[in-house]
């Protein structure tokens, strides 16, 4: 007579489920602090201090930090534990210097070919970005900024350069959110995006490129200052 094996009960224990739920809540709370810039790159996340703050044991804290590491927001560093991940000061300077060198040139090549449909799409993006800045939905700022900048440059006819810029803007996603959150430059960013778009539509392409250069340079300088202050206070 054949004996049918009973499936093994793989249900998690109530305690394991509780830890999982608590760790997810802690991970989300820390994620929001990192994305808003409250916890700057390089900040050390001490398990004992976090356990005391949240009033829980270190086990769900450890699980939360592992979740954040999997998402690229935290690095587990030997002898230091968990630290908020991010670009170094030198990398930030390099990224923004490359953007300053490339983006204004690409805008000059692209702007004259932007169609009425392109401008309509860019204005819709600008409006969405403006609303997100005012609403404080930090998690969307970097992506909307990236789409706006790439939209301006789409007709440059330089696919290799555009690919480089796309990568640089991706690298700038979290730093952009940090810069805007810490400096409060949301009004300036919104106004400069609007003015660059207006200048392009008016055919004042060189003026638009000059403002784009100033726009990117300012963001880079602000970030370098933020990172250096964070390093000095670490």
TrEMBL record:
PROSITE patterns: HTH_GNTR. It comes from Methylobacterium variabile. The lineage of its organism: Bacteria, Pseudomonadati, Pseudomonadota, Alphaproteobacteria, Hyphomicrobiales. Residues 20-87 form the HTH gntR-type domain. InterPro entries: GntR_C, TF_FadR/GntR_C, Tscrpt_reg_HTH_GntR, WH-like_DNA-bd_sf, WH_DNA-bd_sf. Keywords: DNA-binding, Transcription, Transcription regulation. CDD domains: WHTH_GntR. Gene3D superfamilies: GntR ligand-binding domain-like (1.20.120.530), Winged helix-like DNA-binding domain superfamily/Winged helix DNA-binding domain (1.10.10.10). This is GntR family transcriptional regulator.
